[in-house]
Q: What sequence folds into this?
């Protein structure tokens, strides 16, 4: 069973923020106890980091880089899946994964967050969710060793009560296991925990776990229109979320 990972920065207390929140915030977000927020494509535009780390790693094993559009369509199912997909795209031997993976870890950690801007409205949106009294967790398919430094570097760690990576559970999104375990760690019922993401991975996991789901229009979603993913709400900025949807 997963446990809450203590952040180096204490999260902004939801109860304190709620007491000071304008009435408009409380009115805009109702009927929820918690939210689970995806990372890549939802909070941070990490394609630039992926592009550089992959190019440097591939060069060390004699392979060319892959394009940014391919990376944007492929990210979301974890680093292992990304590397396997890259090798397949290049027509390379799948066995090269064993050589590529440790190189990729080194190069990614070396630049983690350098080429990855926050999406507009992210800081304001997280503060708004905290002000509405919600407990927050960041749940991503990327390794926790990548996720936690990225949140710290971008000044987002303070908003979260818990952070879970793809290697914290036996299965990754779109399997519902990570969402159910995260709800348990937050002490919140799935039906009152909003999954906030950017792809059908998030939507499928949320539906199977019994969570409502809101998806960003600006994320990655494997090159598919996010409106087709079956979300309860589609939003253009995190700070524009209104719940229940109107």
A:
């Amino acid at each position: 069973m997963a446990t809450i990972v203590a952040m180096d920065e204490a999260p902004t207390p939801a109860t304190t923020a709620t007491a000071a929140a304008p009435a408009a915030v409380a009115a805009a977000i109702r009927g929820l106890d918690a939210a689970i927020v995806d990372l890549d494509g939802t909070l941070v535009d990490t394609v630039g980091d992926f592009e550089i780390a992959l190019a440097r790693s591939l060069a060390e094993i004699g392979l060319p880089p892959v394009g940014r559009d391919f990376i944007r369509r492929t990210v979301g199912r974890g680093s292992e899946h990304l590397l396997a997909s890259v090798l397949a795209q290049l027509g390379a031997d799948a066995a090269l994964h064993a050589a590529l993976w440790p190189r990729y870890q080194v190069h990614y950690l070396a630049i983690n967050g350098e080429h990855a801007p926050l999406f507009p409205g992210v800081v304001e949106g997280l503060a708004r969710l905290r002000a509405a009294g919600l407990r927050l967790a960041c749940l991503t398919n990327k390794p926790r060793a990548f996720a936690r430094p990225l949140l710290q570097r971008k000044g987002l760690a303070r908003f979260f009560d818990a952070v879970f990576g793809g290697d914290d559970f036996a299965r990754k999104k779109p399997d519902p296991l990570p969402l159910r375990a995260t709800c348990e760690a937050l002490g919140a019922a799935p039906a009152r925990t909003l999954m906030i993401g950017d792809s059908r991975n998030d939507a499928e996991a949320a539906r199977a776990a019994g969570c409502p789901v809101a998806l960003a229009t600006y994320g990655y979603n494997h090159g598919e229109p996010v409106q087709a993913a079956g979300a309860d709400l589609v939003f253009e900025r995190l700070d524009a979320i209104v719940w229940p949807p109107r």
Q: What stands out?
A: The chain is about 40% helix and 10% strand. The first strand starts at residue 34 and ends at 37. The beta strands are 34-37, 135-139, 162-164, 193-197, 213-216, 233-235.
